[in-house]
Amino acid sequence: MSELIPSLAELHAMPQVQQPTYEDADRLNWVVNRLRELPPLVFAGECDDLRDKIARVANSQAFILQGGDCAETFDGVRADNIKSKLRVLLSMSVVLTYAAQVPVVKVGRIAGQYAKPRSKDTETRGAITLPAYRGDAVNGFDFTPKSRRHDPDRLIQMYNASAATLNLVRAFVTGGFADIRQLHAWNASFVQDSRIEHRYEQMAGEIERALGFMLACGVKDDTLSVVDFYASHEALLLDYEYAMTRIDSRSHRPYDTSGHMVWIGERTRQPNGAQVELLRRVSNPLGIKLGPNTAGTDAIELADRLDPNRVPGRITFIARMGADKVREKLPSIIEAVEQTGRKVAWVCDPMHGNTFETANGYKTRSYAAVVEELNGFFDVHDQLGTWPGGVHVELTGEDVTECLGGAFQLSETDLDARYETACDPRLNRSQSLELAFMIAERLNQSRLLRRVPQRVPDWNE
Ligand SMILES: O=C[C@H](O)[C@H](O)COP(=O)(O)O
Ligand SMILES: C=C(OP(=O)(O)O)C(=O)O
């Protein structure tokens, strides 16, 4: 096996799960070779910048907001859709930055989140059983044999969809849309719930006055107009992530150029597995999902394997324990890792441990359980004296009805109205903003408890 990157054949010879089964090996080969020729989607230097920012999170100096669709779709590559997702994330970020006075590292589940691990390989409707939908990168959502076939050409479509999305995101975040002085505009026709709207508008007014004061005092305004925003996704498909891995000409190290940050899922993080083998070679910042059955030793083993040199900002543990388990399961994992002297970013995913099916057949989550898991996460960190470093959420900029509760008190019957996710239920725009206010309050308390010095947050951090 090469020092830098294993070959694809070597990877495929290793234990692996949740991979597509392609009928046409020659076509897959052609696709992988074509992807290897295509330009990188992100640059190594950008990945390093994000890693440095995450190092500040691990150092209790910043907070990560990571969010976006459960599963992006090729049809969803539309300007309005991308814009509204960005708008929610920017609004949430401004709430967190202002109310908690902590710099926020902004990372989308975007421009690459096209593949899904599934609990079952097949789906049955009536008398018909077909392969499960595994994300647009693998097969189609339509319930027909043709659509559900695993098609390697979809990997090229995934590349194109990611490139188009990233192109627009880059234009939005540098072209004036993300200027913090636009914070009223992000909210226009946004939260219709008067309580949330009022709260956001009140805060936006305060920020506007504070900014006016700073500018009048001569503070330079050039950092206000652009924002650093990063793309992340689960590095699930070995063929794609391998093909996008390139040697950086400056450092001569491999980077997975499919996204700035990639994460490894709860189902695919076997220490001797192919995913870990590929990701341990690349220099991107890495997320590792940890479910409720994780032992402290599992987390340490993964961190040691993926980050033997303890590079600051390299590892983010994303805990997704479930509201009823977080207080019991998380403390021993944090304690075990902290005892090794390792500094990692601790992030809470309050979505994946709280999914259930309603009587009317929808896969959903309740806003109350999401809040409950987050409260547990903050309580655990406050008790241990560790830093609650971030949140990882599935959300959308649309007014969907996929998660129960929240500002509009969505009920099971409301799910019929706009249930549009291709996989798991997402928070809608109002639920996301409401959650940002809740997180900001807890984060501010944690900051005060830990006496993290207050500083003028740089919007661009
Ligand atoms: O997003 C995570 C997983 O892909 C998803 O929860 C799996 O869902 P399933 O249990 O319906 O397969
Ligand atoms: C599959 C996911 O999560 P997990 O690996 O935590 O189940 C996800 O975040 O899309």
From TrEMBL:
Reactions catalysed according to its record: D-erythrose 4-phosphate + phosphoenolpyruvate + H2O = 7-phospho-2-dehydro-3-deoxy-D-arabino-heptonate + phosphate
Cofactor(s), by name: Mn(2+); Co(2+); Cd(2+)
Broadest EC class assigned to this enzyme: transferase
Origin: domain of life: Bacteria
Enzyme Commission designation: 2.5.1.54
GO function terms (MF aspect): 3-deoxy-7-phosphoheptulonate synthase activity
UniProt keyword DNA repair present: no
Binding annotation for phosphoenolpyruvate: R109, E266, R267, K289, R320
Residues reported to bind Mn(2+): C70, H352, E394, D424
Cofactor binding summary note: Binds 1 divalent cation per subunit. The enzyme is active with manganese, cobalt or cadmium ions.
Pfam families hit by this protein: DAHP_synth_2
Gene3D superfamilies: Aldolase class I
Source organism of the structure: Brooklawnia propionicigenes
Protein name (database record): Phospho-2-dehydro-3-deoxyheptonate aldolase
Key words of the record: Amino-acid biosynthesis, Aromatic amino acid biosynthesis, Cadmium, Cobalt, Manganese, Transferase
Family, as annotated: Belongs to the class-II DAHP synthase family.
GO biological process, one term: aromatic amino acid family biosynthetic process
Pathway the protein acts in: Metabolic intermediate biosynthesis; chorismate biosynthesis; chorismate from D-erythrose 4-phosphate and phosphoenolpyruvate: step 1/7
